[in-house]
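Dear support,

I submitted the protein below through the web form. The confirmation email said the job was done, but the results page showed an empty box. After a refresh the structure appeared. I'm attaching both so you can tell me whether what I see now is the final result or a partial one.
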Amino acid sequence: MNVAQIIPLADTWGMHGDDVGAGWMALMMILMVLFWGAVIFGIVWLVRGTVAGRRPSSGAPESALQILERRFAEGAISQEDYEARRRVLTNGRS
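What the results page shows now:
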């Protein structure tokens, strides 16, 4: 097919001239906005889902005892420091 055959065929679809009313144009604009909004929402949803999966803890914040236990398990503090700080946290005095 060449261009001379395609142009009259496109005109028969009613998409040229005064065939398309303002109602159809408004509907198509609304559908276009909804479509692109859904695409953008989907992209944001996927990105947030993958980034949230990489966070070490997305739940409640750690308590002071949990932080102390984690630091002791990592070797950041000695056993004496751990026991002294745990006594302070559990008994409330040094």
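Response: this is the final, complete result; the empty box was a page-load delay. The longest helix spans residues 22-54.
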